[in-house]
Amino acid sequence: MSRTVITFGTFDVFHVGHLRILERAASYGDRLVVGVSADALNLKKKGRAPIYSEAERLSIVNALKGVDEVFVEESLELKRHYIEQFAADVLVMGDDWAGRFDEFKDICEVVYLPRTPAISTTALIEKISQA
């Protein structure tokens, strides 16, 4: 029986931390579906527009080995809908979200993975802008 894993992220200024969490997420099932935050959602949740456009971020994530399908995540409030739409058996998120999505344990397994140490998109953007 195949297992579908779903995860979400902005994936802006793609780095090794993004790659590692997607690789680890893929190991929880046979099919990995990734929701990439819409530009408007990123602006709302982080207070800044992404460096790379929504279309570019979708292309980057979709090109990765192990990613089977990508879609635009329009709203944080639609997580349950997305889990059901893609018939996900497992929701995988970074541990910076620990406990935030436990409400979905009634429809799927919820896993929080440790982030890659010393890797941060915000820190990378700050470092680049200072160069």
Strand order in the sheet with the most strands: 3-2-1-4-5
Tell me, what's the shape?
globular
- Beta-strand content bin: 15-25%
Return the string of H and E elements.
EHEHHEHEEH
Annotation field: number of helices? 5
* Termini gap: 50 Å
Structural class: alpha/beta
Biggest pleated sheet: 5 strands, parallel
How would you describe the oligomerization state of the chains in this entry? single chain
Radius of gyration: 14 Å
The stretches of 5 or more residues where confidence is low (pLDDT under 50) are none
- In helices, the fraction of residues equals 25-40%
Mean pLDDT: 90
Plain-language structure description:
The protein is an alpha/beta fold and 131 residues long. 34% of the residues lie in helices and 21% in strands. The chain is built from five helices and five strands. It has helices spanning 16-26, 39-46, 54-62, 79-85, 121-130, and strands at residues 4-9, 31-37, 69-73, 90-94, 109-113. Strands 3-2-1-4-5 form a five-stranded parallel β-sheet, sandwiched between helices. The longest helix is centred in the N-terminal third of the chain and has 11 residues, at 16-26. The model has no long low-confidence stretch (mean pLDDT 90).
